[in-house]
Amino acid sequence: MKAASARVQTARWVAGVAAVVAVALAVVALLPQDPWRTSLLTWAVIAGLGAVTALVD
Prior knowledge:
By secondary structure, the chain is an all-alpha fold. Helix content is about 85%, strand content about 0%. The longest helix is centred in the N-terminal third of the chain and has 28 residues, at about 1-30.
């Protein structure tokens, strides 16, 4: 039971970090158009999907 609880806690931590990264990158993506903006937006989507995956797992 303790292992399952630790796994859930780790998954929530990963989801929290991924969500913060996704929000931060999305905010940066709102900056004026630059060549790196698309890349940041892509990483924001990936981080968001990582957060959802960690919560569902």
